[in-house]
Amino acid sequence: MPTPLPALIVVDVQRAFDEWEAAGKRRNNPDAVARIVDLLAAFRTSRAPIFHIRHEGTRPNSSFLPSRSGYAVKDEAREQDGEPVIVKQVNSAFIGTDLEARLREAGITTLVICGATTNHCVETTTRMAGNLGFDARLVRDATWTFDRIGPDGDAHSAEAIHAMTLSNLNGEFARIVTTAEVIASFAAK
Questions:
Q1: Domain range summary for the chain, segments of one domain joined by +
Q2: CA distance 30 to 134
């Protein structure tokens, strides 16, 4: 029996992040969405499974409330017919959803994870994927985050947060890869 293809997990590529940026929040990795588009094309060409994750806010001021413009997916990353959309209300795409059951039922063991933001929903989903025994691969150039202020008032750049998140996940929860490496792995099959 052939080994199932990896699944692409596209986390929260929603317009709220564009709105945050337009309001002055600074992010890293401006080409991340273009890399996600590249991944989507490669997975579609290879007929590999794709799961789109959407964050649905629950707090009254959330940018991700279904009634707000930020809930909508970015056009570039919109799902196509047959590609499931899984809606979550917490950071992990595995909590309160049927994502794990769908993956197990399909015999999928390898997950390629991309999306937003590196240190929130992408990180939480990746950590949980590793804990659940999946071969998780986080695509470093297909995710991004924003500058943040720490609990002591210290400013942390998006670049530093992104790098630290990748360092924390590397080897223990996931393998850190690039878009080019993922695409090359399809060519090698």
A1: 7-187
A2: 29
